């Protein structure tokens, strides 16, 4: 009995330790500079997203590089309109990502449908996913994406988004 | 799995390493693809239906969204159809400005396609170079129109803005830069043995099949069919301009890439001619200039920006049907507008090149190796939002 409780106690101690100030700061600092977005193109804003990662705007300087495997990524960028068919896929992708994970919705369509607000085939990202940052614009400029990354990093370092519970 | 069930079904996408919002359902036997069916419709946003509820001028930004990397073709085709119904033609200077923007757009759209193809076959250098070299042209277009990708530059009866000052020099600088870079592209990417091995002889589309399947754009010309709407049915300033239709004979993935590369060089030639031959004159049809108030007309002369006349707000198009065709970066864009004399179209149909090319996924990926799927996919320059509309 005592041994079984030790396991629980160790987890609790780890959670207490990792949420304690100096370690927690280091943890949040680390997460803020290792944002790996999924290579998941939902719509036309992908053209500007690709430009943001390309040489001129170079999002890699924020520690931000699109990656292929969902299970090694922690940021989901909703690049524009989410159709009903794509919404399901976005949910699957989000569920497969490891914790801690963040969602950024890009473009006017990501906020409230944009130019397609009365289309019969779209869903609002905020209805199906916990979105942390919205980027306005149709399409947003690559600078807008850089701004979104910085905002996300600030939010993470304030400790608003990441919570470890055991 | 028993020995009889040798075929395995593999689902590729909609989240996959290549950029693309679609799923491919592949049946594979070992390393050989037996059958590949594209599952499209992931980006269907009902553009045609929404157009029926919007006013004619509001539809211009709407039709641009489906093909965001190649917006001018859709914009131009839509406005050309409207002008046919209105029975007016833009003044010559506006026609030249339209051609200028269309060619700048073709260059950066082709570079987009080449870059994405580079990522798909695992050459990050190609992606970085193409996307880096795309920026000068995007910036030129931005200076001319005010937006990076979604220009909405072409309006019924003309264009929205005059050439900015010293624009010709800036264009010349960008063109010379691109010409020099082309040599690097050949040295490092296109003549690279790895690229050649991945692309040559892969996904061969014969001339007969290309015609039978109704393929459009560079993919058609790569199979040796010299079909280009700019020559077949000249529009804007193309009748006055001397250029060649780029064709390749082989029809494999490498030929499709080479057609795009050579079209960039041809576009550079066209842009130089356009800037040399550009006539002076108004950029908006006189019927609309008359409708603008005198104060605003003065403002227009000073800044070179067109102020929309009041009739644009509730533009009524005479009843009738019109079809227009434009050669975009990815191929032939067709717009069919039926108007019943109201403020919105009764029906708007857009036929996009990507939708016509999607049949090639099934046709070309039969009997190839699994590693060839991305090489073929990328070479088609397929843009799903454009196909799904």
Give your account of this protein's structure.
The complex is a heterodimer of chains A (166) and B (389). Chain A is mainly α and 166 residues long. Chain A is built from 7 helices and 5 strands, in the order αααββαβαβαβα. Chain A has helices at 2-18, 21-32, 46-53, 84-96, 107-112, 125-128, 142-157, and strands at residues 75-79, 82-83, 102-106, 122-123, 133-135. Chain A has a 3-stranded parallel β-sheet, with helices on both faces. Chain A has a two-stranded antiparallel ribbon with strand order 2-4. In chain A, helix 3 (46-53) crosses helix 7. The two termini of chain A are 20 Å apart. In chain B, strand 2 and strand 3 (32-39) form a beta hairpin. Chain B has one domain: Orthogonal Bundle (Cytochrome-c3 Hydrogenase, chain B), CATH 1.10.645. The model of chain B has no long low-confidence stretch (mean pLDDT 87). Helices cover 48% and strands 12% of the residues of chain B. Chain B contains 17 helices and 8 strands. In chain B, helix 4 (92-120) packs antiparallel against helix 5 (124-145) and helix 4 (92-120) runs antiparallel to helix 11 (253-277). Chain B has helices at residues 47-51, 59-64, 71-86, 92-120, 124-145, 167-190, 193-199, 207-212, 218-221, 229-232, 253-277, 286-291, 294-303, 353-357, 359-364, 372-379, 384-388, and strands at residues 8-12, 23-29, 32-39, 154-155, 158-159, 320-327, 332-339, 347-351. By secondary structure, chain B is mainly alpha-helical. At the A-B interface, helix 3 and helix 4 of A face helix 4 and helix 5 of B.
């Amino acid at each position: 009995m005592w041994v079984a409780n030790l396991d629980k106690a160790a987890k609790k101690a780890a959670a207490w330790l990792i949420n304690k100030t100096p370690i927690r700061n280091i943890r949040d600092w680390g997460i803020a500079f290792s944002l790996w977005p999924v290579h998941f193109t939902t719509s036309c804003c992908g053209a500007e997203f690709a430009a943001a990662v390309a040489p001129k705007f170079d999002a890699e300087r924020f520690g931000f590089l699109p990656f292929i495997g969902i299970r090694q990524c922690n940021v989901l960028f909703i690049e524009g309109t989410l159709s009903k068919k794509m919404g399901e896929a976005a949910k699957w992708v989000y569920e497969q990502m490891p914790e801690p994970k963040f969602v950024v919705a890009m473009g006017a369509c990501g906020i409230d449908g944009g130019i397609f607000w009365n289309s019969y085939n779209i869903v609002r990202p905020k209805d199906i996913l916990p979105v942390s940052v919205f980027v306005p614009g149709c399409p947003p400029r690559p600078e807008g994406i850089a701004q979104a990354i910085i905002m996300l990093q600030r939010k993470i370092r304030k400790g608003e988004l990441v919570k470890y519970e055991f | 799995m028993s020995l009889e069930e040798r075929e395995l079904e593999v689902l590729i996408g909609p989240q996959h390493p290549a950029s693309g919002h679609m799923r491919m359902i592949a049946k594979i036997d070992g390393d050989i693809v037996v059958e590949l069916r594209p599952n499209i419709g992931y980006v269907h946003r009902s553009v045609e239906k929404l157009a029926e509820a919007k006013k004619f001028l509001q539809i211009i930004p709407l039709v641009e969204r489906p093909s965001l990397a190649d917006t001018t073709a859709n914009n131009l085709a839509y406005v050309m159809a409207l002008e046919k119904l209105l029975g007016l033609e833009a003044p010559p200077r506006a026609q030249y400005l339209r051609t200028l923007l269309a060619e700048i757009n073709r260059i950066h759209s082709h570079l987009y396609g080449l870059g994405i193809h580079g990522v798909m076959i695992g050459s990050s250098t190609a992606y970085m170079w193409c996307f880096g070299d795309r920026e000068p042209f995007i910036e030129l277009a931005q200076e001319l129109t005010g937006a990076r990708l979604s220009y909405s530059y072409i309006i019924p009866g003309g264009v929205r803005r005059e050439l900015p000052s010293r624009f010709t020099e800036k264009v010349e600088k960008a063109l010379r830069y691109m010409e020099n870079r082309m040599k690097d592209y050949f040295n490092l990417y296109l003549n690279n043995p790895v690229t050649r091995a991945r692309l040559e002889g892969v996904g061969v589309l014969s001339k007969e099949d290309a015609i039978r399947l109704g393929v459009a754009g560079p993919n058609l010309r790569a199979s040796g069919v010299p079909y280009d709407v700019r020559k077949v049915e000249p529009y804007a300033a193309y009748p006055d301009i001397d250029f060649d239709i780029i064709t390749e004979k082989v029809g494999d993935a490498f030929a499709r890439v080479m057609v795009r590369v050579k079209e960039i060089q041809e576009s550079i030639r066209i842009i130089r001619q356009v800037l040399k031959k550009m006539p002076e004159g108004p950029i908006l049809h006189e019927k609309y200039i008359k409708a603008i108030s005198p104060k605003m007309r003065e403002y227009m002369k000073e800044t070179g920006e067109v102020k929309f006349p009041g009739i644009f707000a509730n533009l009524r198009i005479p009843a009738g049907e019109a079809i227009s065709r434009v050669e975009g970066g990815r191929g032939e864009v067709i717009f069919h507008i039926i108007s019943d004399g109201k403020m919105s179209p009764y029906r708007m149909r857009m036929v996009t090149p990507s939708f016509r090319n999607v049949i090639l996924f099934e046709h070309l990926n039969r009997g190839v190796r699994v590693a060839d799927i991305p090489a073929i996919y990328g070479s088609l320059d397929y843009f799903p939002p454009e196909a799904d509309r």
